[in-house]
Amino acid sequence: MSLQEINFDGVVGPSHNYAGLSLGNLAATMNAGEVSYPRAAALQGIEKMRANMALGLPQGFLLPLPRPNLSFAAALGCDVGTDPRLTAAAWSASSMWTANAATVSPAPDTADGKCHLTPANLVAMPHRSHEWPDTLRMLAVAFGNKDHFVIHTPVLPTFGDEGAANHMRMADSHGEKGLEIFVYGRSGGAFPARQHEQASRAVARLHALDPERILFVEQNPDAIAAGAFHNDVVAVANERVLFTHELAFADREGTYDAIRSKMPSAEIVEVPANAVSLEEAVKSYLFNAQLVTLPDGIMALVIPTEAWENVSVRQWLDEMLAGNGPIRKVIPVDVRQSMANGGGPACLRLRVVADPATVDQRFILDNSKADAMAVAIKNLWPEQIDPADLTSRKLAEEVVAARNNLLQMLELPELI
Fold first, then answer.
1. d(CA 150, CA 163)
2. Catalytic position from the list 131, 230, 239, 245
3. CA dihedral 335, 325, 179, 182 (to 10 degrees)
4. What Å distances lie between residue 20 and 46, 234, 281, 342, CA to CA?
5. Computed from CA positions of residues 385, 37, 344, 165, in that sequence, does the dihedral angle turn out positive or negative?
6. Before 68, cis peptide (omega within 30)?
7. Tens of pLDDT along 130-189?
8. Catalytic residue, candidates 5, 131, 162, 180
């Protein structure tokens, strides 16, 4: 069996809008009430996936969840339109950020030699708390091969779990036994810490991980207060490399020492705060990047164009590339519509180490499928949505029809 890292990007849904529902996500709240462009957003996502395939990387995708979710509003005794925030929550397209879909432990790390996935309960934010039933249903289809995958139900809502956005994995290579790092929060000033330590520990137990190959690390409260609502806004790992901001973790030196003690080959690439401040890191989403190993073995950092255009960030990246570090290429991508709602390249993807042949092939992307998806998006996704439009029955019907059409085209009627 050939284990590879497959990035499963979320297709941006036709209900993509800027309602500003995510407390602590500075971009989302800053752009609240602005007009969004679902068609452009989804096409930017398709182009990002095409670019990864052109680099020689396996690429999968996950699909928009059914929106508006009328049952969510009904369960709260609310008709759509009665309460603007609950209405917006029922319309939220936030499942596009599949880094929050689940926590994934590859087969080399687990006791039974299977890849384990636990959908995130996302209870910290009401607009995301109703995602998991449909996410679970989709994961059960995409990773339905029970010889290779185990799908768990989410951690009980007693403890908030945000999925892979607060989880990192390091290994000498993707197919080897790894070190799984669970990052939780305790406080963040005015902003909530979304990942609970007990949720992280529960996932590690459910996945039957080797206790000697796990770390539980506290996120720096200052990072949360600065707008790093998930760990992946200030740190990202790939194989033996951890790329991190100096202020990512509450106990910086203790975290680095623990990583090195369990994985002597680890390389830590740290961006000092005096070169790129926390505020600039959050604004540019430098760390909300895809750190990937290309087929030739070179490690590349796929960053949003906003990071490439930031003066301090660009200066630091140029100095890094001029050195002899493990990250040898920087590749900017345009995901501006997602960025304006608080999600960069890393938010848009769920990393799964598996043999691509064991995944339901309807979720594996190729150029032909990407072409067909782009045509469907151009024809059916709304060009723009004003948050005031979220009470429109006509728009709701268009959004439902657009998603259903895409699922039918991809021969996934079981998800309609």
1. 16
2. 230
3. -50
4. 24, 21, 20, 9
5. positive
6. yes
7. 999 999 999 999 999 999 999 999 999 999 999 999 999 999 999 999 999 999 999 767
8. 162
Q: How many CB atoms lie within 10 A of CB 171?
A: 23
**Residue at 374: amino acid letter:** A
- The answer to whether the predicted template modeling score (pTM) of the entire model surpasses 0.90 is yes
**Annotated catalytic, 397?**
no
Which amino acid is present at 369?
Answer: K
Domain boundary assignment for the chain: 4-214+334-415
The end-to-end CA distance of the chain, in Å, is: 32
Choose the CATH number for 4-214+334-415 among 3.90.1150.10, 3.75.10.20, 3.40.50.880, 3.40.30.10: 3.75.10.20
Q: Is the pLDDT of residue 76 over 90?
A: no
Catalytic: which of 115, 130, 306, 347? 347
- 115 tagged catalytic: no
For residues 363 and 359, give the distance between their C-alpha atoms in angstroms, rounded to a whole number.
7
The answer to whether 152 is a known catalytic residue is: no
The sign of the torsion formed by the CA atoms of 338, 339, 341, 345 equals: positive
pLDDT tens profile 287-337: 999 999 999 999 999 999 999 999 999 999 999 999 989 999 999 999 999
